[in-house]
Design brief:
Helix 8 packs across helix 10. Strand 2 and strand 3 form a beta hairpin. By secondary structure, the protein is of the alpha/beta class. It has a single domain, classed as Nucleotidyltransferase, domain 5 (2-Layer Sandwich). It is built from twelve helices and five strands. Helix content is 52%, strand content 13%. The radius of gyration is 19 Å and the shape is globular.
Length: 256
């Protein structure tokens, strides 16, 4: 078994904003403010369209037959092209099942746009059966296939009115949830030089997603009580061994 749960964090693509709206000379924060103001005028919300989101962190957990890992791709100095390339390289190498929360609605479309921008090839990800017949009936792109499980979408029965937040679902199930950080704080944190904090936050979102997925697999009958307990124990043992402050905080808040 190879399974990635993943999450991305983004900031406004101010480079695009400068070029498209002729904002040369303005600092990043003012360019972003202008972009969000224009978006507010158009839609009533400051949330930028997905193609104008620049990726600053991608975190993954990786479950194989005998191990569990969680980390953030690249290092704190890595550029967007490098971390997006690393994400698709992992799919190319392992052909993992993917698990996300709103990955179909946000993370993957953003990754598509940014991979296109940076000329990144990802043939395994885009396979739909032309070269591997197995992918005709189970690929990453179909909403109703299982090679990518968007938990938010699946648990809502694919109904927008049924959607829940990861934070609330995690807490409902006894998992830590957001622990004081959230997506709407990422841009201000980034401007303040807090890329480390953003990467740590992204890792805890991945962990919340993975733990919800394990409960989902139990509900589906793919894990029994003993297997679920072993999976939880493996995650705990991994985080204890990593001994990092944000992971220790996560462990302390995990009550289930």
């Amino acid at each position: 078994m190879h399974c990635f749960s993943f999450d991305i964090e983004t900031v406004p693509d101010v480079e695009f904003g400068r070029r498209f709206w002729d904002l040369d000379g303005l600092p990043d924060d003012e360019v972003a403010t202008a972009m969000m103001f224009k978006r507010q005028q158009q839609t009533g919300s400051e949330f930028l369209p997905l193609h104008l989101q620049r990726i600053v962190a991608i975190s993954v957990s990786f479950r194989t037959a005998d191990s569990f890992k969680v980390w953030t791709l690249g290092d704190e100095e890595s550029g967007e092209a490098e971390i997006v390339q690393r994400f698709f390289d992992g799919i190319e190498k392992y052909t993992p099942d993917l698990v996300s929360w709103n990955g179909g609605g946000f993370d993957l479309p953003v990754l598509h746009y940014r991979a296109l921008k940076h000329k990144i090839q990802a043939p395994r990800y885009w396979e739909t059966g032309d070269n591997d017949r197995e992918f005709k009936w189970n690929n990453y792109l179909s909403r109703f296939h299982w090679r990518h499980v968007d938990l938010m979408d699946v648990l809502a029965g694919y109904q927008p009115r049924g959607k829940a937040s990861l934070d609330q679902m995690a807490v409902l199930l006894g998992f830590p949830g957001k622990l004081g950080m959230s997506g709407d704080k990422v841009w201000d944190t980034y401007l303040a030089g807090g890329i480390r904090e953003i990467r740590d936050y992204c890792e805890t979102d991945v962990l919340n997603t993975w733990l919800v997925y394990l409960r989902f697999e139990f509900m589906r009958g793919n894990l029994d009580e003993a297997e679920l307990a072993r999976e939880f124990a493996l995650v705990r043992e991994t985080l204890v061994a990593m001994d990092q402050p944000h992971l220790n905080e996560f462990l302390a808040a995990w009550t289930d």
